Every structure is written in C-alpha cells, then in structure tokens.
Amino acid sequence: MIRSLFGELRSKVAGKGIKIVFPEGNDERVVRAAARLKFEGLVDPIILGEADQVKNLLKQFGFADQNYTIINPNTYPDFDKMKELFLEIRKGKATPEVAEKLLRDVNYFGVMLVKMGLADGMVSGAIHSTADTVRPALQIIKTKPGISRTSGVFLMNRENTNERYIFADCAINIDPEAQELAEIAVNTAETAKIFDIDPQVALLSFSTKGSAKAPQAEKVQEAVKIAKELAPDLALDGELQFDAAFVPETAAIKAPDSDVAGHANVFVFPDLQSGNIGYKIAQRLGMFEAVGPILQGLNMPVNDLSRGSSAEDIYKLAIITAAQALD
Question: Beta partners for 69?
Fold first, then answer.
C-alpha cells in the first residue's frame, strides 16, 4: 500500500493544539506557512515580531480572519520572569545585562517560550544561521540524558511512494568521534520511528567489514560496537559501503552474515562532509525531497531551516516539529 508521508503526519498532529514558535515573523514565507498551519488546524503558531507588521502580512495573504498569537519580545509582559529563569538555567554564565540583551533576540526568546512550557517546539532559520538557531537551544533546552550533542538528519522522501530514508548527520558535527557517531546512530533510529520507518541502521564507510584498513574505517567499526552496547535490540550494522547497505545482491557478496546489509533505511555517514554530499546527490540526482535538517537529541524539538527555504519547506518542517513534540 502506498502511503503519503505528510498525509500521515498531518493526521497525527491535527487537532492536538500543538504550539510552535516562529521567531521570524517579519519574513513573508514564515508568516504564510504559519497561517496555513493555523488554517488547516495542524499547529497553533506563536509568531514573534511587531504585531502590526505581522497582521499586515496576514491580511495580505488572506488569513487575517483568524486569531493569532503574536508576541513582541520588546513588550512581553512576563519578560522579567523569563529573564530570571534564564539566569537560573545559565547559572552564572550570564549577567543580568547579558541576559537582557540575549532575550531580546528572537531565537533566545523563542527557545525560552519552549523551555517555559508555553510552546511545544520552535522552527527558525529562514533568515538566521544554523548557529543562531542551535546555540540557544543547546544552552537552554539542552540535550537528552546520554546524548553528548545534537545532530541533524534529513528525511529523504518520495511523496506518494513507500520510499523514505533517513540520512545522518548532514548538518551539525564535522568529524564525530566513535562515541558520538554511535549516539547519532541510536538517536537517528528513534527519529526514524516518527515517520513510521522500522529502523535498519547502516553505519557507512568506504570499507565493508574490514575490506580496507584505515583510521577512518576503524572509527566506524568502533562506533558500531558502542552503538550495539547502547541499543542491543536495534537492527544496526557496519562498517558498510553504501552499495552493501542498500543493494541485496551486493550485500550477499560483501556482507553475507549481516542482518542489515541490503535493506538498510537509516544511513549514518562517518562525517559531515560525506553526509552533506550524500544527501545532496540523492536530492539532485535521485530526485528525492530532502526535508530538514531535523535536529535530534534535544529535550524539546527545535528545528533549523535553510535560508533558501520556501513557505512549503517551512510548513513541512513545522509539521515534523509538531510530530516530534508528540513523540
């Protein structure tokens, strides 16, 4: 049976009253996506910005007839309460003056709304860098127990087919060590379940089961050992070349004893360089839709957009963020 991924996700989040913060309320793409989500009953958006500017955009797009939560950080009535909590979280790493300045930044302010339970997640990055989005999330929301750092995955999807895969890490960690790579693998398997993917995890390399000798391949071998200790029931294997991980005939030759080779659907790249190249090849030559980066490992969902994102991209990432909030 052919399934529509975003059809499934829309059904999962619809009517749940999930609140997602959009810090970039001065951007037309963001406001258009937020309004559509509100109109379809998928998300209750919290839009940050000047109220008059946001309302003018909503009116321009024909969505002004609904009630929206619009917050201006500079006039927020509970700003002092937010600042007090921020100082407590940072525990001497920020002065009151620094806290005041940081919380006027829409990304810090938006993440604090999530931390305070006033929102369930945040989507930003249409006009901000990845660092601008991720830094406040790491400082305020922080990573889950047992996860040393966040990572960024892409959902590689062909809508209205059963072809969907997860690629990691394609956005955050430049050269993860074996322990970090193992954590990424286990965490990515959990992310895959949000999309109804039964994770079959392959840790990729230019080597398959010791066919090449090099420190880069040994790092992946070590990561596989650690990952199996972290999640002994997870279907996971490596090190595998991509063809051994994906093609059954090749797997039968190169990794005949593997329970993952030949049918992997979650691919963990050994470093950011290969991950970023890999997902873009699949996107441009393989004609897959690349949705993400989806940040994982945080205690509450915060996701980063590409600055070239369309309103459709923002809409879809917000739905994914809402689904993460339910998980």
Answer: 46
Whether 183 and 146 have beta carbons less than 8 Å apart is answered as yes
- Give tens-digit pLDDT for 133-180: 889 999 999 888 878 889 999 999 887 777 899 999 998 999 999 999
β-pairing verdict for 151-157 and 164-168: antiparallel
Q: Which residues contact 120 (CB under 8 A, 6 or more apart)?
A: 18, 19, 20, 114, 300, 301, 322, 325
Residues 307 and 125: beta-carbon distance below 8 Å:
yes
Comparing C-alpha atoms, which of 174, 242, 163 is closest to residue 202?
Answer: 242
Q: What is the pLDDT of residues 224-282, one digit of tens each?
A: 999 999 999 999 998 999 999 999 999 999 999 999 999 999 999 999 999 999 999 99
Pair 159, 289: CB distance under 8 Å: yes
